[in-house]
Amino acid sequence: MNNAGTYLYAVTRAEASAPAEDLKGVAGEAVRAITHAGLVAYVSTVPLDRFGEEPLRRSMEDLDWLSETARAHHHVVEEVARTTPTAPVRLVTVYSGEDQIRELLDRRHDDFTATLARITDRQEWGVKAYVDPTAPPSAEEGEKDEAATSPGLAYLKKRQASLRSREEIWRQAAVRGEQIHEVLKSMAVASQRHRPQDPQLSGREEWMILNGAYLVDLDRGAEFARLVDGLRGEGIDVQLTGPWAPYSFAAFAEPSRGETGDDA
Amino acid sequence: MTLDQPRGAVLAQEGRLPPERVALVDLLDRLLAGGVVVSGDLVLSIADIDLVRISVRALIMSVRGSDGE
After folding, report:
1. Which residues in chain B are closer than 8 Å to A89, comparing Cβ atoms?
2. What gap in Å lies between CA A172 and CA A168, rounded to an integer?
3. Residue range A181-193: mean pLDDT, rounded
4. Which among A62, A158, A218, A233 is least buried, having the fewest CB atoms inside 10 angstroms?
5. CA of A229, closest CA in chain B: separation in Å?
6. What are the residue boundaries of the structural domains of chain B, listed by start?
7. Which residue among B14, B40, B54 sits closest to A107, beta carbon to beta carbon?
8. Which domains are delineated in chain A?
9. Considering CB atoms only, which of B29, B36, B56 is closest to A90?
10. In the prediction, which pLDDT does A76 show?
């Protein structure tokens, strides 16, 4: 068959139970498990007229399609990860058939096994930190001079001071983002900084100073959440998301194009 | 087990869990930049960073186009 592809969502160890029969993936297709070489690949059939290379290039520009597909992919990953350590695969990974999936499980067996060992009994948490650059600066210098100088000069001075203080706020905020990351990192097994989100997408005007992902031991989740709570204040807002399946920590340790993380 | 419990507790205490779009952004951070990247005899994998940029740009455009929030 040339007009159907096999979409890969996630890989687990073979001890995993089969997916629920009614579990649906992208394009509304049923998810099935391929067990091979001690691993299980969760896949579904996709039509290549929508999941082939050319259609995908167009589809990725379509917010509704992207959103729907991302949520369907995520749903499958979540369902699988509910019961067993799960290595999520990147969005829209499509093979030509089940044989290719089996071959992948053979070829990358050790990589999958290593990744699964790394994320077992651990969860990913997302932490985003924002600073509000319009928050009033603490500096009040310069006001004393105002009476002694001309109004124009006073205005200019004030403006310069305001620009300086704004820059200063941002510089301090970046340092603060770094500090927050270091604190969170200390409780995490691994960490990864994503690019700050565009305000147009996050819906928040504030400057995002941290978009981090942290791989944390399962039994330290509550402790981690408390740590995050304690980092709020002084003009900094901190938002916790998760727990996530370990998307940010699933990359194979190889010199490929995968993310490498900043955990040394 | 403990998997779902902390999530509910944390999200409840967060209080302002996001509009759909915010969650989608967080999701795309992970789905487009994370996950296992495999290659071989596959038809396609979005490991291609250019495609990621395209999709993010498309997102921004769509969001701008659809409302002024």
Report:
1. 35-38
2. 6
3. 97
4. A233
5. 9
6. 18-66
7. B40
8. 4-119 (no CATH), 122-135+169-249 (3.30.70.60)
9. B36
10. 94
Question: Would the CB atoms of A57 and B51 count as touching at under 8 Å?
Answer: yes
pLDDT at B36: 84
Decide if the complex's ipTM is over 0.95: no
